[in-house]
Amino acid sequence: MVCSQCQELLSDYIDGALELGEQINIERHLSDCEPCRAVRDDLLQIVHFSHQLPVQSPSTALWPRINAGLAELQPSFWNRSLRWLQNLRTLNINFSVPQMIATAAAIAIVVSTGIILSRRDNGITPLSTAGITLSPSDPTPLSQADLQVLEKQISQLSESVEQRKDSWDPELRNAFERNLLYVNQSLAECRHQLSDHPGDDVSQELMLNAYREKIRLLEGFDKF
Amino acid sequence: MKPFLTFRLLIFLAIVTTSADSQQRFERSYTPQHPAHLTISNVNGSIHISAWDKKSILARANASSSVAIEDHVIGDEITIVTRRSFRPARADFVVSVPPDTSLTVKNIVGKIDVRGITGPVSIHSIDSDVQLTKVNSPSVDVVVTSGDIYFDGELRDGGSYSLQSMKGDLDVTLPSATSFNLNARALSENINLGSFLNSLSGPSRGPKGISGTYLRGGPRLTLTAFAGRILLHKK
Protein backbone atom coordinates (compact mmCIF):
# COMPACT_ATOMS: atom_id res chain seq x y z
CA MET A 1 0.00 0.00 0.00
CA VAL A 2 1.33 3.45 -0.87
CA CYS A 3 0.64 6.69 0.97
CA SER A 4 -2.02 8.00 -1.42
CA GLN A 5 -4.04 4.79 -1.07
CA CYS A 6 -3.70 4.84 2.69
CA GLN A 7 -4.85 8.45 2.89
CA GLU A 8 -7.80 7.83 0.60
CA LEU A 9 -9.03 5.28 3.10
CA LEU A 10 -8.04 7.07 6.31
CA SER A 11 -11.34 8.83 6.92
CA ASP A 12 -13.26 5.60 6.42
CA TYR A 13 -10.74 3.87 8.66
CA ILE A 14 -11.36 6.44 11.40
CA ASP A 15 -15.11 6.03 10.93
CA GLY A 16 -14.72 2.26 11.29
CA ALA A 17 -16.29 1.80 7.87
CA LEU A 18 -13.63 -0.45 6.37
CA GLU A 19 -13.60 -4.18 5.94
CA LEU A 20 -11.18 -6.12 8.10
CA GLY A 21 -8.69 -6.74 5.27
CA GLU A 22 -8.46 -3.05 4.36
CA GLN A 23 -8.18 -2.15 8.03
CA ILE A 24 -5.26 -4.54 8.48
CA ASN A 25 -3.55 -3.18 5.37
CA ILE A 26 -3.87 0.38 6.65
CA GLU A 27 -2.56 -0.52 10.07
CA ARG A 28 0.36 -2.32 8.49
CA HIS A 29 1.14 0.77 6.40
CA LEU A 30 0.71 3.14 9.33
CA SER A 31 3.14 1.15 11.42
CA ASP A 32 5.86 1.95 8.87
CA CYS A 33 4.89 5.42 7.67
CA GLU A 34 5.41 8.48 9.81
CA PRO A 35 3.77 11.01 7.40
CA CYS A 36 0.57 8.94 7.17
CA ARG A 37 0.49 8.56 10.93
CA ALA A 38 0.69 12.36 11.16
CA VAL A 39 -2.27 12.73 8.80
CA ARG A 40 -4.24 10.13 10.79
CA ASP A 41 -3.47 11.98 14.04
CA ASP A 42 -4.59 15.26 12.50
CA LEU A 43 -7.85 13.71 11.37
CA LEU A 44 -8.36 12.13 14.77
CA GLN A 45 -7.78 15.50 16.40
CA ILE A 46 -10.36 17.11 14.16
CA VAL A 47 -12.87 14.39 14.96
CA HIS A 48 -12.08 14.72 18.66
CA PHE A 49 -12.49 18.50 18.49
CA SER A 50 -15.72 18.26 16.57
CA HIS A 51 -17.33 16.14 19.24
CA GLN A 52 -16.54 18.76 21.90
CA LEU A 53 -17.76 21.81 20.04
CA PRO A 54 -20.92 23.69 21.03
CA VAL A 55 -23.82 23.83 18.61
CA GLN A 56 -23.48 26.72 16.14
CA SER A 57 -24.09 26.62 12.42
CA PRO A 58 -21.40 27.86 10.04
CA SER A 59 -22.48 30.13 7.22
CA THR A 60 -24.10 28.24 4.37
CA ALA A 61 -21.42 29.42 1.96
CA LEU A 62 -18.52 27.98 3.98
CA TRP A 63 -18.83 24.30 3.16
CA PRO A 64 -19.42 24.71 -0.58
CA ARG A 65 -16.32 26.92 -0.70
CA ILE A 66 -14.23 24.33 1.15
CA ASN A 67 -15.65 21.54 -1.00
CA ALA A 68 -14.96 23.43 -4.21
CA GLY A 69 -11.42 24.32 -3.10
CA LEU A 70 -10.60 20.75 -2.15
CA ALA A 71 -12.14 19.33 -5.31
CA GLU A 72 -9.95 21.63 -7.40
CA LEU A 73 -6.83 20.56 -5.57
CA GLN A 74 -6.95 16.77 -5.87
CA PRO A 75 -10.30 15.34 -6.93
CA SER A 76 -9.39 11.65 -6.72
CA PHE A 77 -7.58 11.92 -3.42
CA TRP A 78 -10.18 14.05 -1.74
CA ASN A 79 -13.33 12.20 -2.76
CA ARG A 80 -13.44 10.23 0.44
CA SER A 81 -12.32 13.16 2.55
CA LEU A 82 -15.11 15.23 1.03
CA ARG A 83 -17.61 12.56 1.94
CA TRP A 84 -16.20 12.63 5.46
CA LEU A 85 -16.43 16.41 5.57
CA GLN A 86 -20.01 16.24 4.30
CA ASN A 87 -20.80 13.79 7.09
CA LEU A 88 -19.17 16.18 9.49
CA ARG A 89 -21.38 18.97 8.20
CA THR A 90 -24.51 17.04 9.08
CA LEU A 91 -23.40 17.03 12.70
CA ASN A 92 -24.48 20.68 12.88
CA ILE A 93 -21.25 21.83 14.54
CA ASN A 94 -20.88 25.22 16.10
CA PHE A 95 -17.57 27.05 16.24
CA SER A 96 -16.31 29.91 18.33
CA VAL A 97 -13.83 32.14 16.49
CA PRO A 98 -10.69 30.54 18.05
CA GLN A 99 -12.13 27.11 17.38
CA MET A 100 -12.81 28.01 13.76
CA ILE A 101 -9.22 29.25 13.40
CA ALA A 102 -7.89 26.07 15.01
CA THR A 103 -10.05 23.91 12.77
CA ALA A 104 -9.07 25.84 9.66
CA ALA A 105 -5.39 25.45 10.62
CA ALA A 106 -5.88 21.73 11.11
CA ILE A 107 -7.58 21.43 7.71
CA ALA A 108 -4.75 23.40 6.12
CA ILE A 109 -2.20 21.01 7.65
CA VAL A 110 -4.11 18.01 6.37
CA VAL A 111 -4.53 19.53 2.90
CA SER A 112 -0.86 20.47 2.54
CA THR A 113 0.37 17.13 3.87
CA GLY A 114 -1.99 15.32 1.56
CA ILE A 115 -0.85 17.28 -1.47
CA ILE A 116 2.82 16.73 -0.69
CA LEU A 117 2.37 13.03 -0.17
CA SER A 118 0.06 12.48 -3.12
CA ARG A 119 2.58 14.27 -5.36
CA ARG A 120 5.35 12.14 -3.93
CA ASP A 121 3.37 9.02 -4.86
CA ASN A 122 2.60 10.19 -8.38
CA GLY A 123 5.34 8.12 -9.94
CA ILE A 124 3.72 4.82 -9.10
CA THR A 125 0.02 4.89 -9.63
CA PRO A 126 -1.84 1.87 -8.37
CA LEU A 127 -4.65 0.47 -10.46
CA SER A 128 -7.99 1.23 -8.98
CA THR A 129 -10.75 -1.15 -9.86
CA ALA A 130 -14.43 -0.55 -9.29
CA GLY A 131 -14.40 -1.69 -5.70
CA ILE A 132 -10.90 -2.87 -4.97
CA THR A 133 -7.77 -0.82 -4.63
CA LEU A 134 -4.84 -2.86 -5.81
CA SER A 135 -1.41 -1.91 -4.65
CA PRO A 136 1.67 -3.29 -6.36
CA SER A 137 2.84 -5.44 -3.50
CA ASP A 138 -0.05 -6.32 -1.24
CA PRO A 139 -0.59 -10.05 -0.89
CA THR A 140 -4.26 -9.47 -0.05
CA PRO A 141 -6.26 -12.69 -0.19
CA LEU A 142 -8.92 -12.62 -2.88
CA SER A 143 -12.48 -13.16 -1.81
CA GLN A 144 -15.17 -14.36 -4.22
CA ALA A 145 -16.65 -10.85 -4.17
CA ASP A 146 -13.27 -9.38 -5.12
CA LEU A 147 -12.95 -11.85 -7.97
CA GLN A 148 -16.41 -10.99 -9.24
CA VAL A 149 -15.58 -7.28 -9.25
CA LEU A 150 -12.34 -7.92 -11.12
CA GLU A 151 -13.95 -10.24 -13.64
CA LYS A 152 -16.78 -7.83 -14.26
CA GLN A 153 -14.33 -5.06 -14.97
CA ILE A 154 -12.32 -7.34 -17.26
CA SER A 155 -15.46 -8.38 -19.07
CA GLN A 156 -16.45 -4.74 -19.71
CA LEU A 157 -12.99 -3.81 -20.92
CA SER A 158 -12.74 -6.92 -23.14
CA GLU A 159 -16.04 -6.10 -24.78
CA SER A 160 -14.92 -2.57 -25.50
CA VAL A 161 -11.54 -3.69 -26.90
CA GLU A 162 -13.04 -6.46 -29.04
CA GLN A 163 -15.31 -3.97 -30.79
CA ARG A 164 -12.36 -1.92 -31.96
CA LYS A 165 -9.43 -4.18 -32.52
CA ASP A 166 -10.21 -5.03 -36.15
CA SER A 167 -9.26 -1.48 -37.09
CA TRP A 168 -5.86 -1.65 -35.41
CA ASP A 169 -2.48 -1.95 -37.06
CA PRO A 170 -1.80 -5.72 -37.49
CA GLU A 171 1.50 -5.53 -35.58
CA LEU A 172 -0.13 -4.04 -32.52
CA ARG A 173 -3.16 -6.30 -32.79
CA ASN A 174 -0.81 -9.29 -32.79
CA ALA A 175 1.01 -7.85 -29.77
CA PHE A 176 -2.29 -7.46 -27.95
CA GLU A 177 -3.46 -10.97 -28.72
CA ARG A 178 -0.11 -12.51 -27.88
CA ASN A 179 0.07 -10.72 -24.54
CA LEU A 180 -3.53 -11.49 -23.69
CA LEU A 181 -2.71 -15.14 -24.28
CA TYR A 182 0.26 -14.91 -21.88
CA VAL A 183 -1.90 -13.32 -19.19
CA ASN A 184 -4.66 -15.89 -19.65
CA GLN A 185 -2.12 -18.70 -19.46
CA SER A 186 -0.76 -17.27 -16.21
CA LEU A 187 -4.26 -16.89 -14.79
CA ALA A 188 -5.04 -20.50 -15.71
CA GLU A 189 -1.83 -21.62 -14.05
CA CYS A 190 -2.68 -19.62 -10.91
CA ARG A 191 -6.16 -21.16 -10.78
CA HIS A 192 -4.62 -24.59 -11.20
CA GLN A 193 -2.19 -23.92 -8.35
CA LEU A 194 -4.97 -22.63 -6.14
CA SER A 195 -7.18 -25.61 -6.82
CA ASP A 196 -4.29 -27.85 -5.68
CA HIS A 197 -3.33 -25.61 -2.73
CA PRO A 198 -6.32 -23.40 -1.87
CA GLY A 199 -4.64 -21.60 1.02
CA ASP A 200 -1.38 -20.87 -0.75
CA ASP A 201 -0.60 -17.17 -0.21
CA VAL A 202 1.93 -17.00 -3.02
CA SER A 203 -0.51 -18.37 -5.59
CA GLN A 204 -3.16 -15.92 -4.38
CA GLU A 205 -0.71 -13.07 -4.62
CA LEU A 206 0.30 -14.14 -8.12
CA MET A 207 -3.31 -14.48 -9.20
CA LEU A 208 -4.08 -10.98 -7.95
CA ASN A 209 -1.09 -9.71 -9.91
CA ALA A 210 -2.25 -11.58 -13.00
CA TYR A 211 -5.72 -10.06 -12.76
CA ARG A 212 -4.17 -6.64 -12.29
CA GLU A 213 -1.99 -7.24 -15.31
CA LYS A 214 -4.95 -8.26 -17.44
CA ILE A 215 -6.78 -5.08 -16.49
CA ARG A 216 -3.68 -3.03 -17.26
CA LEU A 217 -3.35 -4.71 -20.65
CA LEU A 218 -6.98 -4.12 -21.55
CA GLU A 219 -6.92 -0.55 -20.27
CA GLY A 220 -3.79 0.12 -22.29
CA PHE A 221 -5.49 -0.96 -25.50
CA ASP A 222 -8.92 0.34 -24.60
CA LYS A 223 -7.78 3.95 -24.98
CA PHE A 224 -7.16 3.67 -28.70
CA MET B 1 15.34 -3.08 -71.81
CA LYS B 2 15.72 0.68 -71.50
CA PRO B 3 12.02 1.38 -70.74
CA PHE B 4 12.14 -1.36 -68.11
CA LEU B 5 15.17 0.27 -66.43
CA THR B 6 13.45 3.65 -66.48
CA PHE B 7 10.36 2.10 -64.91
CA ARG B 8 12.46 0.53 -62.13
CA LEU B 9 14.22 3.85 -61.55
CA LEU B 10 10.88 5.59 -61.19
CA ILE B 11 9.66 2.97 -58.74
CA PHE B 12 12.88 3.36 -56.74
CA LEU B 13 12.52 7.17 -56.66
CA ALA B 14 8.89 6.83 -55.60
CA ILE B 15 9.89 4.55 -52.72
CA VAL B 16 12.71 6.86 -51.61
CA THR B 17 10.43 9.90 -51.78
CA THR B 18 7.67 8.13 -49.87
CA SER B 19 10.00 6.92 -47.13
CA ALA B 20 11.55 10.37 -46.79
CA ASP B 21 8.09 11.90 -46.43
CA SER B 22 6.99 9.28 -43.95
CA GLN B 23 9.57 10.27 -41.31
CA GLN B 24 9.61 13.25 -39.00
CA ARG B 25 12.02 14.41 -36.38
CA PHE B 26 11.01 15.62 -32.92
CA GLU B 27 13.57 17.52 -30.88
CA ARG B 28 13.05 19.50 -27.69
CA SER B 29 15.32 20.85 -25.00
CA TYR B 30 14.11 21.62 -21.49
CA THR B 31 15.89 23.38 -18.66
CA PRO B 32 14.26 22.50 -15.35
CA GLN B 33 15.12 24.51 -12.26
CA HIS B 34 15.04 21.49 -9.96
CA PRO B 35 15.26 17.74 -10.47
CA ALA B 36 12.61 17.16 -13.09
CA HIS B 37 9.93 14.53 -13.43
CA LEU B 38 9.92 13.34 -17.02
CA THR B 39 7.05 11.27 -18.35
CA ILE B 40 7.30 9.61 -21.74
CA SER B 41 4.22 7.87 -23.04
CA ASN B 42 4.75 6.04 -26.31
CA VAL B 43 2.84 3.47 -28.32
CA ASN B 44 5.22 1.69 -30.65
CA GLY B 45 8.96 2.20 -30.68
CA SER B 46 12.09 2.14 -28.60
CA ILE B 47 12.86 4.49 -25.73
CA HIS B 48 16.47 5.07 -24.77
CA ILE B 49 17.10 7.32 -21.79
CA SER B 50 20.57 8.03 -20.48
CA ALA B 51 22.00 10.35 -17.88
CA TRP B 52 24.46 13.03 -18.85
CA ASP B 53 26.35 15.68 -16.90
CA LYS B 54 24.23 18.64 -18.07
CA LYS B 55 21.30 20.18 -16.23
CA SER B 56 19.08 20.25 -19.29
CA ILE B 57 16.96 17.53 -20.85
CA LEU B 58 17.26 16.80 -24.54
CA ALA B 59 14.57 14.64 -26.12
CA ARG B 60 14.79 13.47 -29.70
CA ALA B 61 12.55 11.15 -31.63
CA ASN B 62 12.41 9.75 -35.11
CA ALA B 63 8.82 9.05 -35.91
CA SER B 64 6.53 8.16 -38.73
CA SER B 65 4.82 11.21 -40.14
CA SER B 66 1.45 9.92 -38.98
CA VAL B 67 2.57 9.99 -35.35
CA ALA B 68 1.70 13.10 -33.37
CA ILE B 69 4.12 13.83 -30.54
CA GLU B 70 3.09 16.41 -27.98
CA ASP B 71 4.94 17.84 -25.04
CA HIS B 72 3.73 19.71 -22.00
CA VAL B 73 5.78 21.46 -19.35
CA ILE B 74 4.40 22.52 -16.00
CA GLY B 75 7.20 23.71 -13.75
CA ASP B 76 9.61 20.80 -13.56
CA GLU B 77 7.02 18.29 -14.77
CA ILE B 78 7.77 17.44 -18.38
CA THR B 79 5.45 15.17 -20.33
CA ILE B 80 6.05 13.85 -23.82
CA VAL B 81 3.17 11.92 -25.30
CA THR B 82 2.76 10.05 -28.53
CA ARG B 83 -0.85 10.43 -29.45
CA ARG B 84 -2.42 7.02 -29.57
CA SER B 85 -3.26 5.66 -32.94
CA PHE B 86 -3.34 2.17 -34.29
CA ARG B 87 -2.20 3.11 -37.73
CA PRO B 88 1.12 1.52 -38.65
CA ALA B 89 3.42 4.05 -37.05
CA ARG B 90 6.44 4.16 -34.86
CA ALA B 91 8.36 6.65 -32.72
CA ASP B 92 11.85 5.94 -31.43
CA PHE B 93 13.02 8.18 -28.60
CA VAL B 94 16.55 9.03 -27.50
CA VAL B 95 16.59 11.20 -24.40
CA SER B 96 19.42 12.64 -22.31
CA VAL B 97 18.64 13.77 -18.79
CA PRO B 98 20.39 14.90 -15.62
CA PRO B 99 20.99 11.81 -13.43
CA ASP B 100 18.58 12.89 -10.68
CA THR B 101 15.60 13.08 -13.03
CA SER B 102 12.54 11.15 -11.95
CA LEU B 103 11.27 8.98 -14.81
CA THR B 104 7.87 7.61 -15.72
CA VAL B 105 7.88 5.61 -18.94
CA LYS B 106 4.84 4.04 -20.54
CA ASN B 107 4.91 2.10 -23.75
CA ILE B 108 2.96 -0.55 -25.61
CA VAL B 109 5.59 -2.16 -27.85
CA GLY B 110 9.31 -1.45 -28.05
CA LYS B 111 12.54 -1.83 -26.17
CA ILE B 112 13.20 0.43 -23.19
CA ASP B 113 16.71 1.23 -22.09
CA VAL B 114 17.57 3.41 -19.07
CA ARG B 115 21.12 4.23 -18.03
CA GLY B 116 22.79 6.04 -15.17
CA ILE B 117 19.67 7.38 -13.46
CA THR B 118 19.63 8.24 -9.75
CA GLY B 119 16.03 9.48 -9.52
CA PRO B 120 12.94 7.28 -9.09
CA VAL B 121 12.08 5.14 -12.11
CA SER B 122 8.69 3.76 -13.08
CA ILE B 123 8.27 1.76 -16.29
CA HIS B 124 5.03 0.17 -17.41
CA SER B 125 4.89 -1.52 -20.78
CA ILE B 126 3.10 -4.33 -22.54
CA ASP B 127 5.58 -5.86 -24.94
CA SER B 128 9.08 -4.65 -24.15
CA ASP B 129 12.46 -5.81 -23.09
CA VAL B 130 13.57 -3.42 -20.38
CA GLN B 131 17.20 -2.77 -19.58
CA LEU B 132 18.28 -0.73 -16.58
CA THR B 133 22.02 -0.20 -16.26
CA LYS B 134 24.12 1.76 -13.79
CA VAL B 135 20.95 2.73 -11.97
CA ASN B 136 21.14 4.00 -8.39
CA SER B 137 17.56 5.05 -7.74
CA PRO B 138 15.58 5.30 -4.50
CA SER B 139 12.77 3.37 -6.17
CA VAL B 140 12.34 1.30 -9.30
CA ASP B 141 9.04 -0.12 -10.48
CA VAL B 142 9.01 -2.07 -13.72
CA VAL B 143 5.98 -3.97 -14.97
CA VAL B 144 5.85 -5.60 -18.39
CA THR B 145 3.42 -8.13 -19.71
CA SER B 146 5.98 -9.79 -21.96
CA GLY B 147 9.68 -9.13 -22.17
CA ASP B 148 12.87 -9.68 -20.25
CA ILE B 149 13.88 -7.24 -17.55
CA TYR B 150 17.57 -6.68 -16.96
CA PHE B 151 18.71 -4.69 -13.92
CA ASP B 152 22.32 -3.83 -13.22
CA GLY B 153 22.64 -1.25 -10.50
CA GLU B 154 22.63 -0.48 -6.83
CA LEU B 155 19.95 -0.55 -4.18
CA ARG B 156 19.59 2.30 -1.73
CA ASP B 157 18.86 1.76 1.93
CA GLY B 158 15.10 2.05 2.47
CA GLY B 159 14.45 1.91 -1.27
CA SER B 160 11.82 -0.13 -3.05
CA TYR B 161 12.62 -2.15 -6.18
CA SER B 162 9.92 -4.10 -7.92
CA LEU B 163 10.32 -5.94 -11.22
CA GLN B 164 7.56 -8.00 -12.80
CA SER B 165 7.18 -9.80 -16.11
CA MET B 166 4.44 -12.22 -17.12
CA LYS B 167 6.43 -13.74 -19.95
CA GLY B 168 10.15 -13.17 -19.66
CA ASP B 169 13.18 -13.50 -17.44
CA LEU B 170 14.24 -11.17 -14.66
CA ASP B 171 18.00 -10.82 -14.61
CA VAL B 172 19.36 -8.79 -11.70
CA THR B 173 23.00 -7.95 -11.06
CA LEU B 174 23.92 -6.35 -7.74
CA PRO B 175 27.15 -5.49 -5.95
CA SER B 176 28.02 -8.31 -3.56
CA ALA B 177 27.99 -5.98 -0.55
CA THR B 178 24.42 -4.80 -1.18
CA SER B 179 21.99 -5.61 1.63
CA PHE B 180 18.33 -6.21 0.81
CA ASN B 181 15.11 -7.93 1.75
CA LEU B 182 14.10 -10.28 -1.04
CA ASN B 183 10.67 -11.39 -2.08
CA ALA B 184 10.96 -13.49 -5.26
CA ARG B 185 7.99 -15.21 -6.93
CA ALA B 186 8.18 -17.41 -10.01
CA LEU B 187 5.02 -19.20 -11.05
CA SER B 188 6.33 -21.74 -13.51
CA GLU B 189 10.12 -21.56 -13.70
CA ASN B 190 13.14 -21.45 -11.47
CA ILE B 191 14.53 -18.88 -9.11
CA ASN B 192 18.30 -18.88 -9.17
CA LEU B 193 19.82 -16.65 -6.52
CA GLY B 194 23.38 -17.78 -7.25
CA SER B 195 25.75 -17.14 -4.39
CA PHE B 196 23.29 -14.72 -2.75
CA LEU B 197 21.37 -17.79 -1.60
CA ASN B 198 24.11 -18.93 0.79
CA SER B 199 23.93 -15.73 2.81
CA LEU B 200 20.15 -15.32 2.77
CA SER B 201 18.95 -15.32 6.36
CA GLY B 202 15.50 -16.24 7.60
CA PRO B 203 14.56 -17.59 4.22
CA SER B 204 11.06 -18.77 3.55
CA ARG B 205 11.05 -21.13 0.62
CA GLY B 206 8.02 -22.50 -1.10
CA PRO B 207 7.54 -24.13 -4.48
CA LYS B 208 6.84 -20.74 -6.07
CA GLY B 209 8.77 -18.25 -4.01
CA ILE B 210 11.71 -17.35 -1.82
CA SER B 211 11.79 -14.58 0.74
CA GLY B 212 14.62 -13.63 3.02
CA THR B 213 17.15 -11.06 4.14
CA TYR B 214 20.56 -10.67 2.59
CA LEU B 215 23.18 -9.22 4.94
CA ARG B 216 21.51 -6.41 6.94
CA GLY B 217 18.37 -6.15 4.82
CA GLY B 218 16.96 -2.70 4.09
CA PRO B 219 15.98 -2.14 0.46
CA ARG B 220 12.92 -4.14 -0.57
CA LEU B 221 13.58 -6.18 -3.71
CA THR B 222 10.40 -7.72 -5.13
CA LEU B 223 10.78 -9.94 -8.19
CA THR B 224 7.79 -11.56 -9.87
CA ALA B 225 7.99 -13.76 -12.96
CA PHE B 226 5.01 -15.73 -14.18
CA ALA B 227 6.49 -17.58 -17.14
CA GLY B 228 10.18 -16.91 -16.85
CA ARG B 229 13.20 -17.30 -14.66
CA ILE B 230 14.52 -15.12 -11.89
CA LEU B 231 18.30 -14.84 -11.93
CA LEU B 232 20.42 -12.95 -9.41
CA HIS B 233 24.10 -12.30 -10.00
CA LYS B 234 26.82 -10.70 -7.95
CA LYS B 235 28.82 -8.01 -9.67
Structural class of chain B, by secondary structure, is mainly beta
CATH architecture of the largest domain in chain B: 3 Solenoid
What is the radius of gyration of chain A computed over CA atoms, rounded to a whole number of angstroms? 22 Å
Order of strands across the widest beta sheet of chain B? Answer: 5-6-2-8-10-12-14-20-16-19-18
Compute the number of strand runs of chain B: 21
Mean pLDDT of chain B: 89
User: In percent terms, what proportion of residues of chain B is strand?
Assistant: over 45%
Shape of chain A: elongated
Total count of strands of chain A: 2
Model regions low in confidence, pLDDT < 50 over at least 5 residues of chain B: 12-21
Q: Kindly give the count of domains of chain A.
A: 2
Overall description:
The complex is a heterodimer of chains A (224) and B (235). With 224 residues, chain A is mainly alpha-helical. Chain A has 2 domains: 3-125, no CATH class; 130-222. Helices cover 74% and strands 2% of the residues of chain A. Chain A has a two-stranded antiparallel sheet. In chain A, β1 and β2 form a beta hairpin. In chain A, α1 (3-14) runs parallel beside α3 (34-52) and α4 (62-73) packs antiparallel against α5. Chain A is elongated. The two termini of chain A are 30 Å apart. Mean pLDDT of chain A is 73; it is low at 117-139. Chain B has 235 residues and is mainly beta. In chain B, 9% of the residues lie in helices and 55% in strands. Chain B is built from 1 helix and 21 strands. Chain A binds chain B through residues 122-124, 136-137, 167-173, 175-176, 178-179, 182-183, 185-186, 189-190, 193, 200, 202-203, 205-206, 209-210, 213, 216-217, 220-221, 223-224, and chain B through 37, 43-44, 84-89, 102, 104, 108-109, 120, 122, 124, 126-127, 139, 141, 143, 145-146, 162, 164, 166-167, 183, 185, 187-188, 206, 208-209, 220, 222, 224, 226-227.
